[in-house]
Design a protein that fits this description.
This protein is α+β, with helices and mostly antiparallel strands and about 150 residues long. It folds into 2 domains: about 1-85, Winged helix-like DNA-binding domain superfamily/Winged helix DNA-binding domain (Arc Repressor Mutant, subunit A, Orthogonal Bundle); about 90-150, Dna Ligase, domain 1, CATH 3.30.1490. Helix content is about 35%, strand content about 15%. The protein is built from 5 helices and 5 strands; from the N terminus they run ααααβββββα. The chain has helices at about 5-15, 20-30, 40-45, 55-65, 135-150, and strands at about 70-75, 80-85, 95, 105, 130-135. The strands form 2 sheets. It has a 3-stranded mixed β-sheet with strand order 4-3-5, with no helix packed on it. The protein starts with 6 loop residues before the first helix and ends with a helix. The mean pLDDT is about 90.
Length: about 150
């Protein structure tokens, strides 16, 4: 999000003890506007805080459980992570490109998920996740270029 974001207080306010690993994960996520994969987070976190992949998974589990971080599905059994505050505070849809595996945020105003009508008796809503799957324009252009050459 920004250099001045106080991740330690955000963790404390969410009832999570601020450890170096947890702060490092939040600051890694805050540097990217788009949701990140575990591999990307790990690569980013390793320098300030060398942790094992297993520890990272456990850290992410806690942060998701405490709703500091959002876990989003991307493709088959894959997840991406984003901060649950700042840009990602409001529920919004994501576009997933099945070719390049990218997950892009869609402006919350474009598809308002906050006002989605929930049928009575469905249950107590805790989160809304909407993923639009398809091909991004980058991949469509690459495919077209490749077609013209061949
Ligand atoms: Zn793509
Ligand atoms: Zn997003």
């Amino acid at each position: 999000m920004c250099d001045s974001c106080d991740y330690k207080s955000i963790l404390r306010e969410s009832g999570v003890r601020p450890t170096r690993a947890r702060s490092a994960v939040l600051s890694a996520l805050g540097e990217e506007a788009r949701p990140m994969s575990v591999e990307e987070i790990h690569a980013r976190v390793l320098e300030p805080c060398p942790i094992h992949r297993v520890t990272l998974y456990r850290t992410l589990d806690i942060l998701v459980e405490k709703r500091v971080v959002r876990r989003l599905s991307a493709g088959a059994r894959a997840f991406r992570y984003a901060l649950a505050f700042g840009k990602h505070r409001h529920e919004h849809a994501h576009f997933y490109c099945r070719r390049c595996d990218s997950l892009k945020c869609i402006d919350p105003g474009a598809i308002p998920l906050d006002s989605i009508p929930i049928p009575k008796g469905a249950g107590l809503l805790e989160k809304v996740e909407l993923r639009l799957d398809g091909l991004c324009y980058g991949c469509i252009a690459r495919e077209r270029d490749a077609g013209e050459e061949g």
